[in-house]
Every structure is written in C-alpha cells, then in structure tokens.
Amino acid sequence: MKSAVRIAITGAAGNIGYAAAFRVAAGNMLGTDQPIILQLIEIPPALGALEGVKMELCDCAFPLLEDIICTADANVGFKDVDYVLSIGSKPRTKGMERADLLSENGKIFGPQGKAINDNASRDVKVLVVGNPANTNALIAANNAPDLDMRQFTSMMRLDHNRAISQLSSKTNTPVTKIKQMIVWGNHSLSQYPDISHCKVDGKDAKSLVDDSWYKEEFMPRVQKRGAEVINARGASSAASAASAAIDHMRSWVIGTDGDDWVSMGIISKGDYGIAEGLMYSFPVRCKNGNYEVVQGLSIDDFSQKMMKATENELLEEREAVKDLL
Ligand code: NAX
C-alpha cells in the first residue's frame, strides 16, 4: 500500500467543499490505491458545520481515509499538504462591484498563498476554484515566492465539461467520443468555448453543427450555464463543480488520454500571444504530474478576437489587484 498523501480543502463546509470531500475520500481523485489524510479548512464561524462534515466522513468508513484534520488556521491546514483544493472564498453580495469582489478575495488568497508557501510540500499542486478563480490563483501564486508559479492553477474544467456535454447532446454522441475541446481565458462570461479543433467520433465538430448554433446557442449556453443552474436549482452549481475539481486534479496527476487535452487556468508564458503572467486557460496535455500547453493550433480571426477579449478582462482584473501581487 502507498503511504498517505495530504489533501487540503478550503471552504470544506460549503456547498462545493461538501460535495468534493466525499468523492476525494472515496478515491475518485487519485485512485482507489491511494490512502488520504484530509485537512479541511474553514473560517471560525463555520467550524461547527465542519465538525458535522467530519462526522459524516467518519460515518462513511472510507477505507482510504486515514485521518481528518479540521482547522481555521491556514498554517495548520496547509502543513505538509501535497494537494490543495482552494474552494472557500467570499461571495459577491448585493451592490458589490467587481473590483470590490477582487480586492475582498485578494485578502483571502494573498495570505493563503503565503501559508501554502510556508507550510506545504515543495511539490504541492494547487487548484483554485473560489471566484474570481483565475485572479485569485494569480494572487496566491504571487504570494508564494518559494514555489513555482506553475504549481498554482485555476479551474476551467467545469466550463470544459459543460462544453463537451452540450456538444455531446447536440450531436447525439457519447461524451467519451468528444475530444480536444478548448475553453480559453477567464472563468467568466468572457470565456471562449472553442470547438475549432474538436473531434466528434473522429470527425471535425465544425462540420457537424451550424455556425449559427455554435455562436448563438452553444457559446452563450456554456458561458451562462452557471446562471441557468442557479435559476433551476435555486442554488449554484455544487456537485458538478466538485466533480470538475476532481477531474482537473486527476488529469494533472495521472495524465491526459493519448492525443486528447483538457482546459486549465495556468500562468501564461506568452503562448498564442497571451500576455505573460496572466492566469489564463489554455489547452494542456498532462503527463507524469506535469502539464504542457498544446502547441501549433491554428487560430482564425474569430478565435483571435474571442481570445483577446477574455485576455483583456484578465488584464483588467490583474490591474485591479496589482497591489496584492
Ligand atoms: P459556499 O458559500 O457554499 O461555500 C464557501 C465556503 O467557503 C463557506 O463554507 C465559507 O465559510 C468558506 N470560506 C470563506 N472564506 C474562507 C476562507 N478564507 N478560508 C476557508 N474557507 C472560507 O460556496 P460554494 O457554492 O461552495 O462555492 C465556492 C466558490 O466556488 C465560490 O467562490 C464560487 O463562486 C466558486 N465557483 C467556481 C467555479 C469555477 O468553475 N471556478 C464554479 C462553481 C462556483 O461558482
């Protein structure tokens, strides 16, 4: 049996954290031969609810789950962790401007980046889910000077999975046969779900759907799916977001399949002309715990315009939090 790895989940008493913790403990993220120690982090008012989450985790008697630590102290919660699911963040409240949201969350993700820097395993892999996820991840990465910025990523996998699901139902093809989807840029309405390189059962996706469906139905639907779920459920996406977080980490650790790729928010090194140092979603292939941006994709004028628009939004976000970087 392998030795246990330590997985921190922030916001573990919240909706997504609650949905994620059980699947992680069941082995869905790292496999059913990988023992786990969960380090669950919450703010002090939520520690009572977190204790309830711990009770339920214990009551599952998960074979892989060796220990559960519950804390409101980030230095304790990130101690020696190998993986971080950074989910907890401050929600947008009525009347709050985007800049206020960015700076309020900056106050969380700056200290969190520092606590990860000071306490986590030197090989830690961090996924930021809490919104605005890309810029929160950028802030955390910039506050962890002893770690490589590549160890910090942001979640675009829910958008990626939503795009696959929409195309699957439109073409009546199983999701397993949809390959090489891309969602570029920011986890926001400006994101660009791109099927230009996508294959549906080996055929070019674009040859199977109308351009008007692609641009007027598919793209807005993927971009606005979060709101659609809120309208239907009366609550924001939770289980699907937790599932995407698990998919993101599993791909990063275990690798992507063959020629396929996934969308991940990562620090831009200037690929495809995107400004360096932004936390931008690119198509990546993962192998042996590393990821590489897929190179050499042709970018037409429409794609260029869409990729630029979402880049511009991320540039504005970065400017709004420049004091925290
Ligand atoms: P909830 O409000 O249900 O849970 C958030 C939890 O985080 C709460 O229990 C709160 O006490 C805790 N928390 C707040 N500040 C914390 C801190 N400093 N340290 C530790 N815990 C802290 O929200 P939930 O529905 O779980 O959503 C969590 C975040 O995910 C939100 O920011 C949400 O916008 C974001 N999402 C991101 C998605 C993505 O694709 N990147 C999609 C889903 C989701 O909207």
Characterise this structure.
With 325 residues, the chain is of the alpha/beta class. The chain folds into two domains: 5-154, Rossmann fold (3-Layer(aba) Sandwich), CATH 3.40.50; 157-323, Lactate dehydrogenase/glycoside hydrolase, family 4, C-terminal (L-2-Hydroxyisocaproate Dehydrogenase, Chain A, domain 2). The chain contains ten helices and 14 strands. It binds ligand NAX.
- Helical stretch tally: 10
For the secondary structure, the number of strands is 14
Largest sheet: 6 strands, parallel
Q: Examine the secondary-structure arrangement and name the CATH architecture of the largest domain.
A: Alpha-Beta Complex
Strand arrangement within the widest β-sheet reads: 3-2-1-4-5-6
CATH superfamily of the largest domain: Lactate dehydrogenase/glycoside hydrolase, family 4, C-terminal
What count of domains describes the coordinates? 2
Look at the helices and sheets and give the structural class. alpha/beta
Beta-strand residue percentage:
15-25%
Helix content: 40-55%
Radius of gyration: 19 Å
So what's the CATH class of the largest domain? Alpha Beta
- What small ligands are held by the chains? ligand NAX
Shape: globular
Average predicted confidence as pLDDT: 96
Stretches with pLDDT under 50, minimum 5 residues: none
Run of helices and strands? EHEHEHEHEHEHEEEEEHHHEEEH
Distance between the termini: 41 Å
Assign the CATH topology of the largest domain.
L-2-Hydroxyisocaproate Dehydrogenase, Chain A, domain 2
Layout: helices, strands, pairs:
Elements: E1 5-10, H1 15-25, E2 36-41, H2 47-59, E3 65-71, H3 74-77, E4 83-86, H4 98-119, E5 125-128, H5 133-142, E6 152-154, H6 157-171, E7 178-179, E8 182-184, E9 192-194, E10 199-200, E11 203-204, H7 211-223, H8 225-233, H9 239-254, E12 262-267, E13 279-287, E14 290-293, H10 301-320
Parallel strand pairs: 1-2, 1-4, 2-3, 4-5, 5-6
Antiparallel strand pairs: 7-10, 8-9, 10-11, 12-13, 13-14
Bound molecules: ligand NAX.
